[in-house]
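Hi all, long-time lurker, first post. I run a small reading group and we've been trying to get comfortable going from sequence to structure in the token notation. Rather than ask abstract questions, I figured I'd post a concrete chain and ask someone more experienced to write out its structure so we can walk through it together at our next meeting. Sequence below, copied exactly:
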Amino acid sequence: TDESVIWWTGRNRNGKHHGTLKLSKGEIQVRNGAIQGAFEIDMTTIKNKDLEGDPLQPVLIAHLLSDDFFFVKMFPKASFILDAARVVESPTLSSPNFDVKGTLELRGVKAEINFPATVNRREDGSVSIEAHFDLDRTRWNVRYGSSRFFEHLGMHLVYDLITIELRVFAR
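-- Answer (accepted) --
Happy to help. Here is the structure in token form:
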């Protein structure tokens, strides 16, 4: 888990913010080309990178931790259960080689997600998994600033999609 990291990017009309989250534990099993696993995400580790040194950085982090967003006091952990990983037929070296299907639990809500991933065996025998995809945060009741649920948001409008980039290492 020390090497594994989740990068996030959230956007609004005025720009974007990005940062990281850490895994608290996880397990991947690879047997006969089939991949299964589960990961626990420590939501208390949410960090912001673009406002480092800015007095607004702790304000943003506190807002993300609050019930407006991820309600970390009530839901300090999120989890992902890897239900299936299907090998992509004839992928190029520069494209994802697996289609991943799983269940993400965030804020006490479970929803299925699918995304492409690149799985590589490393020289030391470990495996790296990298993926890039967007999540609609409102599927997990993260509704702050969403025009789907609120009107007249003005400067409080926050786009529903969060971009996730993850890199997971397993031994």
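A couple of things your group might point at:
The chain has a mean pLDDT of 91.
The helical segments are 57-65.
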